[in-house]
Amino acid sequence: MTLAIEQPAVSAGVHTDCRILHLTSLSLHSFRNYVAARMEVTAAPVVLAGHNGAGKTNILEAISLLTPGRGLRRAKLAEIDSRNHKGLAWAVAANISGMQGEAKLGTGRDAESDEGSDKRIIKIDGKVCKGQAELARHLSMIWLTPQMEQLFQEGASAGRKFLDRLVYSFDAEHASRINEYEYAMRERNKLLQDYRADGHWLDALEQTMAETGAAIAQARLSTVEHINLSIQRSTLSFPKAELGISGLVENLLATGVPAVQAEEAFKGVLKTARREDGAAGRTLSGTHRSEMGVIHLTKQMPAQSCSTGEQKALLLSIVLAQARSCAHWRKEVPVILLDEVVAHLDSTRRLELFEEICQIGAQTWMTGTDAALFAGLEGAAQYYQVENGTLRHAK
After folding, report:
1. Residue 8's pLDDT is what?
2. Start-to-end CA span in the chain (Å)
3. Spatial contact of 374 and 342, defined as CB atoms under 8 Å apart
4. What is the pLDDT of residue 14?
5. Which of 12, 82, 166, 315 is deepest in the core (most CB within 10 A)?
6. Count of beta carbons in the 10 Å neighbourhood of residue 16
């Protein structure tokens, strides 16, 4: 079966009034096994086929670094430098059609910093930016990798980071708020080590944590609500997931407590816990300790108790629902990165996945060892063969 679609981002998309966020070109320099590479693409899905170790995932990692954070591998910056070009710092650049229109995004390890440094440079339209959060104002992106298949077993931190990345697609300021919250929390932790700490400065830091924490919690709750609604409406055969988020501030907001009151309550908890937090050397309560939960709706079973196959399918259904939610509520379709996902699906679910991608209209980058795994996307996707750090357009 072949999808009768030629330009999924235009003719197949059900959300024709949406902005389809996408890359139009990608350039890599001294990036892992790529000495230099460049590709030009359209908004259609992109298939990267090649043997294991050829460099397919490296392409997805490079793209993921065009958003806030450490990318889909969460690697140290110096680890990304090309082994074939020792001494040169890696760099990634892309021309995009983003939230603010056409733009050129660039990032890389600071070549002037010490060897092994994790100092990173961000450029937008050639101008150096102060922080990574600016990237979220131009491009939103979600991804799924084999490493994420352990998400439900890795504890609260992994689930929270996964959810926050989903929130970025809904709220471009979410990354900035998290950075502001974490900075204030680190400063508070330092002050609490000094028994003579200035109470007024502690008050100011806790006020910042309360304000940003309430906004972070509200954005998480809103994202969870939107994704759950999209999953409930989905006609896909993938198992349906139900997301939840629990935490001090999220629980208050979920019961209808106004944001201002939730802020005051959180601020009161922080003030009361100063001595305890100081003794522990860390802040014991707050949105940095909230937990994401996922339930298999049909079985009414926690995701961590489901089979490995069910967990993979639940994650994929969440990613697809997030993309559709963004299209429906934000009128923006994020870029999707799917690393070695189709190999775990039977032929029926592969076709469902491809049809969903084309219906949403997302520029979806997919990797696989064999182009035959993508049978059904002919005419709808652009194919590249990846071989030992080189790219060849496969027509």
Report:
1. 34
2. 19
3. yes
4. 47
5. 166
6. 10
Q: Report d(CA 287, CA 267) in Å as an integer.
A: 12
| pTM, rounded to two decimals | 0.89
Q: How far is C-alpha 236 from the chain's CA centre?
A: 23
- Please give the distance of CA 211 from its chain centroid, rounded to a whole number: 24
What class has domain 1-140+338-395?
Answer: alpha beta
> Which segments of the chain have a pLDDT < 50?
1-14
Q: What is the pLDDT of residue 117?
A: 57
Q: What gap in Å lies between CA 208 and CA 203, rounded to an integer?
A: 9
Task: Return d(Cα 64, Cα 66) in angstroms, integer.
Answer: 5
Structure tokens at 83: 């082994």
Q: Counting Cβ atoms within 10 Å, is residue 105 exposed (0-12), middle (13-18) or buried (19+)?
A: buried
Closest CA to 264 of 214, 192, 205, 191: 214
Q: How many other C-beta atoms are found inside a 10 Å radius of the C-beta of residue 29? A: 18
| 8 A C-beta contact, residue 44 and residue 336 | no
Q: Where are the domains of the chain?
A: 1-140+338-395, 148-164+179-308+324-333
Q: Which residues fall within 8 angstroms of residue 64, CB to CB, at 6 or more apart?
A: 71, 72, 141, 143, 337
| Backbone φ/ψ region at 116: left (φ over 0), alpha (ψ -120 to 50), beta | left
Architecture category of domain 148-164+179-308+324-333 in CATH: Up-down Bundle (1.20)
